[in-house]
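Researcher: Structure for this, please.
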Amino acid sequence: MLELSISLLVIPVLWALAEWRLGLLLCLVTALLQDPLRKLTPHQPVLFVVFVGVVFAGMCVGALARGIPLNSNGIFRRYPQFARPFSLLLFLLVIQAFNSYLHFENPIITLAGLAAYLLPLPSIVCAYQLVSYQGAFRINQFLKWYIVCIAIALTTIYLEYSGYDWPVLGTINTKLIVFDAVTGQILPSFTGIFRAPEIAAWHAMAAACFVLLMVLLRGITVTRLLTALAIAALLIGLGLLAGRRKIVIEFAVFVSTYFILWAIFERGVGKLAIIACTGAALVGYTWLATGMREEVKERNNTELTDYSRYVAHSENAFQEVPSRFVELGIAPVMWAYDRYGLFGAGLGVGTQGTQYFGGGGGGAAEGGLGKITLELGVPGLFVLGWIAIATFRKLWQIMRFASRYSRRIARLSFGFVSFLVANVAGFSVATQAYGDMFILLILSWTMGFLVAVPILVEREMRARHLAGSEELARGFRPRTV
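Model: Predicted structure, token format:
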């Protein structure tokens, strides 16, 4: 089966080489098929997780073959303030690669960690160039197909929940069991065709965010807002069956950030009513979850997989945010510092998958801040903090620029920034999903789309100017006798 899967992998790779502009869609299809193929393969080799990376590499080679520059010079020329912190980060990565090898004497751990930190750079550049050459069409194309494909894939979670026992369904290796403190019982997690609950839940959250982004792109009305929230609720509802309730928090962060940005950068009379409607929807969800929790108590927990328990389980996530941030955000930093000192243990120690080769950072790697401290040390925290501050300032300028000249592109930028903010919140307390190569690619493409927003605005302004000039020319065209 492994040989057959590798043979099938040749198809999207060659396709990406021939049509690099379709590379994002080919990566999407590959990412959705690699986990089911892995489940059907004896011993379920971890090699399958890099299939999507191979297709993306084919896309990059195809772009280079057509003369598309994939170096970072264009981005750093437009955004020179990033050159210094990124140069410092690269220097730090080289130092920590040696540190990792000295600690574990295993090049696989070092290379896995190095790939996790370096993959975003070519991904950002590739997405930036794709939008520069193809425009917003490729962004819309990817988002639409992502929503459709992920929605179909998420239905397999419900099939597994309903009792279907197909070989392509379920978690690879050990099945996750979630303990529900409210009911005092266990909640089985369901993953469908995805290999792990964290991966399934993350894609449910991402699809819900992109649905809201796409529906509201043409303008914000109460009808569109309610439609988007209904579809998003369905996707989040399927994701809750994976037992990962933090996706509710991440989606709430996305929604609130989006409308805060919209309220800041756009001026409209009805915005307060729409924001109030969104707040009412979130309050309604909390009320529904609380009601279901009482219902579960009254029925004395007669059904282990009653869906109301998954909703009630997610309701507690809002109450536990402060304690979870302390336990999984701050405490791991102190643990990593006490265990490995100022400079940490080196690259790859907390990267997902390296536990099979003697890595794994234990609880310190579960939270994002702890993972960074473990792999890059305290200096890495400061360097990445510098990059984060510089990035936020530049994204703020990009959104302000877009809002002045194009509402449509501005709303696109609001959505992408909100999506990144939601993932920063998720990464700070749980890093498991962010070790997945496809998830890293999506986040990197999102950043690439954002840095290309000024190009989209400038192109739209030129198109308006040209259309205005042509209309003016037709209006003053002399009559022929």
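Researcher: Any notable elements?
Model: The beta strands are 177-180, 185-188. Confidence is low (pLDDT under 50) at residues 284-305, 476-481.
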